[in-house]
Amino acid sequence: MANPTPTTLDKIISLCRRRGFIFQSSEIYGGLNACYDYGPLGVELKRNVKDFWWNWMVRRRRDVVGLDAAILMAPRVWEASGHVAGFTDPMVDCKVCKRRFRADMVPEPGKCPECGGQMTDIRQFNLMFKTFMGAVEDSASVVYLRPETAQGIYVNYRNVLDSSRQKVPFGIGQIGKAFRNEITTENFIFRTREFEQMEMQFFVKPGTDMEWFESWKEDRKNYYSALGINPAKTRFHQHGEDELAHYAAAAFDIQYEFPFGWKELEGIHNRTDFDLKRHQEYAGVDLSYFDEVTRERYVPYIIETSAGVDRTMLCILCDAFEEQELEKDTRTVLHFHPAIAPVKAGIFPLVKKEGMPEIAHQIEAMLQPYYAVFYDESGAVGRRYRRQDEVGTPFCITVDTETLENETVTVRDRDTMQQERMKIAELTAFLHKKING
Questions:
Q1: Does the reported pTM lie above 0.85?
Q2: What CATH code is assigned to 40-84+147-317?
């Protein structure tokens, strides 16, 4: 029987491993399930994604400031948030093959989707990782690896408000690690046990919350277009009554059409005043806000935007990936937006003689302070182009015989494969415009 054709996701996973984007964690020991390491290109792409989000959400706005809260927090935080009592998934095990599943992901209740065996009764499974702080492992020293980053923002709301001189409405943005002991993981880095979140909590006056909610929905849609994601492959999904969290007045997901179907990319939620009131109650600290203009005192409502760095990475990889059947071979290309491409330009001498490598290295030294570039003199130029296409490098700069005569080089565009000549002195400004414009 012929081998099945690899899916697009299989090809992306293979490319990520082969070209140094993403590796299985602890691979030489057989790997650790649902945990991944980011290689040389992956860490550059990841950093660029986080920088793009931070610039969009924090630096370009006057009403949003940043925070980096600790991963370990007082256990009382998670009691107030409801995670200790209610952050659970329904879990079942197969009595035959011993596979474990989330009960809501088993198509036929009581029957194993893998082997058809009988399933155990449903039991609740807390998703938080528990550890201990201090020298003695007892109940008094229990702490948790945070399952979300939002609570760090809520407990620092008063600190940020007092120190930053912000006034409601204002937001706090944060990028940080979170941990969930997921029962079922799937689809590469889509659902992992260790992940990074990019979250912004926007504090507003009650009564203005739905207006701000709609404003942030529009902003987040525009963000993904600016990131280079195909708008035709994104959509809003409104949470129905059976999906809506108990604290939420409204919630929408931005979904992306992954190779495995439409899945959540980002959540936008109207969390009302639930979080601040809970922490106010449990901590015994006044978290109300006094409006000096209207002379009103109230507990702000919160509009949340929450996206995963890893899930955004997978979306970008899927959206950028293309295989083109050319006359003599297949061209694999990642159409990254230049702003997030891990390498901005490949720099090639046409041949390894006549002073071309020296000029190419001078161009490399000129551009390196500003952009990640890659020097390559190995193999035919066409093969070097293919290698850079496969990792998403938007431009390739080639030093040739004409360079020796007039100090011009060819600049090849990854997407169109068209080339143009320009002065070496113009390269920095050209890249700046293409990457940042």
A1: yes
A2: 3.30.930.10
